[in-house]
Amino acid sequence: MTKLLMRALAGETLPTPPIWMMRQAGRYLPEYRATREKAGDFLSLCYTPELAAEVTLQPIRRFGFDAAILFADILLVPQALGADLWFVKGEGPRLSTIDGQADFDKLGPVDEIHETLGPIYETVSILSRELPEDVPLIGFAGAPWTVATYMIAGRGTPDQGPAHALKAENRELFAALIDRITEATIEYLSRQVAAGAECVKIFDSWAGSLQGHDFDEFCIGPIARIIAELKERHPGIPVIAFPREAGDRYIGFHKATGADCVALDNSVSAEWAAKYVQVDGCVQGNMDPRHMVTGGQALVDEAQAITRALRGGPHIFNLGHGITPDADPDNVAKMIEAVRSA
Ligand code: CP3
């Protein structure tokens, strides 16, 4: 198999890890900004298959990454369930909020999400035709907890306070919301796989704010359910799970969820992850995205240190979170060169 990413996901230890980058299609690239301008706004770009496929391909052409990630957003699922969604320039996403039962009751049924999400499956099928032979396509969705934090608060929050408050006040309603998102996510990812995604990633960006039993119930539980159902429907489909800032809960995360690969944020060291997480399977990560802004020898040293620390087992090189708009594209090329020559 020539696809390095698929080999690492299957548990193979490789001399050079496959490389891709969270938010690799994004505002740090002039060609992305030009296509986005043409689309009008971010959501139009997501829902125009030819343009979404184009921005997915741009970083592959420019840098020769070993994987492409579908251009879309985790907040399209709430929108497909009937939430209002819009983006405020320079601030981020806004959604209608969920304060109680009445708001929950306004959400639509899971089997109607495809009416909204159809263009996303079309993007996937364009990409599965147009990507180079050796570059697999990663589909994705948000994990139910992270998606719920945006649906409840109606925006990103520093501490996910509104979601924690609803969980404390009405655990039954909160659990029903998590279930609805879980079921929608299974259908959404399953369609992405049917359309040609060769791997999927589940982003639990706010996993680190769940503790103890809540982490088991609302991070591990829904992710394990999504993975089990996907693997039942699409035997062998590899899954990457990203419980960002999970800390010591990264330990055992492969086994607890059935994920083939666990993505690491940059708050844990690669040496620690080699010892406690990579023993259970493939890991992905985990360079601090700030190096893509600051560059220099520190970038080269850090990229090589991570590559070497995780060389004893299956590893996919990535950042610990998304590349930021102020990053320098030359630093991306420098990172790839550093990893491949480590
Ligand atoms: O990684 C990729 O290149 C694929 C596309 C992708 C986007 N968002 C495009 C995007 C992926 C995988 C995501 C995931 C996503 N979206 C997450 C999970 C990962 C993470 O970053 O923690 C979350 C929490 C979101 C929700 C979201 N979308 C926020 C909070 C924002 C605003 C913040 C920001 O960076 O602007 C977005 C907007 C967004 N999603 C952009 C892109 C390229 C920027 C939009 C623009 O062009 O203005």
UniProtKB/TrEMBL annotation:
Residues 18-27, 138-154 form the Uroporphyrinogen decarboxylase (URO-D) domain. Pathway: Porphyrin-containing compound metabolism; protoporphyrin-IX biosynthesis; coproporphyrinogen-III from 5-aminolevulinate: step 4/4. CDD domains: URO-D. The lineage of its organism: Bacteria, Pseudomonadati, Pseudomonadota, Alphaproteobacteria, Rhodobacterales. It comes from the Bacteria. Keywords: Cytoplasm, Decarboxylase, Lyase, Porphyrin biosynthesis. InterPro entries: UROD/MetE-like_sf (IPR038071), Uroporphyrinogen_deCO2ase_HemE (IPR006361), Uroporphyrinogen_deCOase (IPR000257). GO terms for biological process: protoporphyrinogen IX biosynthetic process from glutamate. It comes from Maritimibacter harenae. Belongs to the uroporphyrinogen decarboxylase family. This is Uroporphyrinogen decarboxylase. Substrate binds at R23, Q24, A25, G26, R27, D73, Y150, S205, H321. GO terms for cellular component: cytosol. Signal peptide: none annotated. GO terms for molecular function: uroporphyrinogen decarboxylase activity. Its EC number is 4.1.1.37. The keyword Lyase applies. PANTHER family: METHYLTETRAHYDROFOLATE:HOMOCYSTEINE METHYLTRANSFERASE RELATED, UROPORPHYRINOGEN DECARBOXYLASE. It is found in: Cytoplasm. It catalyses: uroporphyrinogen III + 4 H(+) = coproporphyrinogen III + 4 CO2. Catalyzes the decarboxylation of four acetate groups of uroporphyrinogen-III to yield coproporphyrinogen-III.
